Structures are given as structure tokens and as C-alpha cells.
Automatic annotation (TrEMBL):
This is Probable Fe(2+)-trafficking protein. Could be a mediator in iron transactions between iron acquisition and iron-requiring processes, such as synthesis and/or repair of Fe-S clusters in biosynthetic enzymes. Belongs to the Fe(2+)-trafficking protein family. PANTHER family: FE(2+)-TRAFFICKING PROTEIN-RELATED. The lineage of its organism: Bacteria, Pseudomonadati, Pseudomonadota, Gammaproteobacteria, Alteromonadales. NCBIfam families: PRK05408.1.
Length: 89
């Protein structure tokens, strides 16, 4: 039987992640409160951010920026900040 969570992003019961994908306390929070569907949405946004802002994951400042955007997107209902990008209405 698939593990379900009440997804804070989607505000509904949905299949949860199979295992913790992100390290630390934030990773545990994601595992406990974010669905597979919401995580996939984040993965799409993350790819856009990395490409558009030319982020280097070896740079600690870039990783911090990405983590801040991830927390905002998944838990605070904030839209990802990408110049020139407008989400579909």
C-alpha cells in the first residue's frame, strides 16, 4: 500500500514520497508533508531556476538560493522567482 500524506502544497491527501530525497530537517519536513505530485512540480521549477539563473550547485550561495526558493514554493505558497517567466493562469 502506498504511503499517503496530507500535502501542504496541494492541500489534499496524496501519495507521499517513497524515501527522503533531501537531507536534514528540511528533507524530513518534505518527506512528512509533501506529495510526489508537489515534488514533481518543484523539480520542474528547480530545473527552470538552475537553467535560467545559470546556478552552479558547487556554489554554496546558489544552493542556499535554491533551498530558499524550494521552501517558499513547497510550504509558503510562493511562486518561484524567474525573470521573464509568467506562470500560466
Amino acid at each position: 500500500m502506498a504511503r499517503t500524506v496530507f500535502c501542504q502544497k496541494l492541500q489534499k491527501e496524496a501519495p507521499g514520497l517513497d524515501f527522503q530525497l533531501y537531507p536534514g530537517e528540511i528533507g524530513q519536513r518534505i518527506f512528512d508533508n509533501i506529495s510526489k505530485e508537489a515534488w514533481q512540480q518543484w523539480q520542474h521549477k528547480q530545473t527552470m531556476l538552475i537553467n535560467e539563473k545559470k546556478l552552479n550547485m558547487m556554489n554554496p550561495e546558489h544552493r542556499t538560493l535554491l533551498e530558499e526558493q524550494m521552501v517558499g514554493f513547497l510550504f509558503e505558497n510562493k511562486e518561484v522567482e524567474i525573470e521573464g517567466y509568467r506562470p500560466q493562469q
